[in-house]
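We close this part of the discussion by returning to an individual protein. The sequence in question and its structure tokens are set out directly beneath this paragraph:
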Amino acid sequence: MARFSERYGYVEPRTLIQRDDLDVETRMDVWNVLVLLQTAFSDHEDEEAEEFMLELLWVSHYRRARDEAPSTVGIWRTIKSSILEKSFFHCMDTIEAVLERLNAVDRAWAPNWEHVIVEAINGRFERNLVGYRLSGGQLVPFDRQEEMAAVADALDAAGPGSSAAHEHLRQSLALLANRERPDYRNSIKEAISAVESVARSITGASTLGTAIKALPGAGMPMHRALLSAWSSMYGWTSDAGGLRHGNEEISHADQALAKYVLVTCSAFVTLLLDASRKGEAQTA
């Protein structure tokens, strides 16, 4: 619900998505989330892990001399300055860097806190109409929580490590999330490749086109209209002027198209993997 000041015209309600900067309120929300991480280290009485994470930030993110590192309080102040005072991209880089270094902390409680921080920041971004969400450890240009959730679910379903589908989705995210040089065409190719990887693994077919046709025979109860839609998607990316052939005359692939394909492919990956696992469970 809109605040009193917005409902009665004392301040302008927020209507524009924040894409190229973060306002003061949003930055303070982000910093207050990171304060929770400070508290987590304190609650677990884990000074060693805190020092390890902050030293990684100091040396590898801030590129400062290791022997000139201040106290943990001093490094937290530097992080706070990055979030509240520095440029938009510096602030966003710092959010990603903190999560990456927290992921390197080898403690049983750390993964849970990484999840808490991601969920909290995404919640603040959604409330403040920020056009990015954290997914796969990166800030990705999404405007709706449902879109981010579809990608996150697919990454979880595919599983990290050697999963080809997981790697294709992660690469698609990285190409879409690159704020300086986004590569929308290759982001789309990677998203389609994630679907191809799963479909081929289920059916044993050699291409996505043949794998889609073989899904019903592999125990996937897919409606023919859904299979037709995916056959058309495959045709769009694979014809003579398609995305997968690198044709220079291809229609321009922009952020909206790349995001649509990534979200759609992610949902289909999750559908295929869930259906496959249910089939395995029934035959076990």
